[in-house]
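Can't paste images in this forum, so I'm doing it all in text. The chain is below; anyone willing to post the predicted structure tokens underneath?
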Amino acid sequence: MFETLESATAYVIAALEAKGTATREDFDVPAIVAASHNIVGSWDFRAIENETFWRIAASYLKA
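Text version of the structure:
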């Protein structure tokens, strides 16, 4: 399931939009995916701690 750039991107978008307060348009999704991939070393982002993921996402919030 989490073996490709596309599946990792879908995971990030789902996480960003899950709370209903933001959309993918509010974030630089490719940058979040790249930063997360650098930390995990794979496309399986479930290994990232929730706090770390949201710290990454917040740093790529569009103004």
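The mean pLDDT is 93. Residues 14 and 24 are 9 Å apart (CA to CA).
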